[in-house]
Prior knowledge:
Elements: H1 9-19, H2 24-35, H3 38-44, H4 52-69
Helix pairs in contact: 1-2
Amino acid sequence: MSKIISVSDEVYNKLKMLKKEESYTVLIKDLLKKRTNKEEILKFAGKGGLDEKEAGTLKKEWKKWSEKYA
């Protein structure tokens, strides 16, 4: 089942440029998938993939560096 949605001309033009040969449905699904990829966003934001030991080591090294150079 399909639905009709309205978007501004600006948004439409941006979507049109991004879509290339794929359908708008596929494009929007891909954009939503990227937008809701929480793990990737958290890694990018520096809140994932780092255990407590690594964090402690980084804190110590950062403190040494900042005392020397900052």
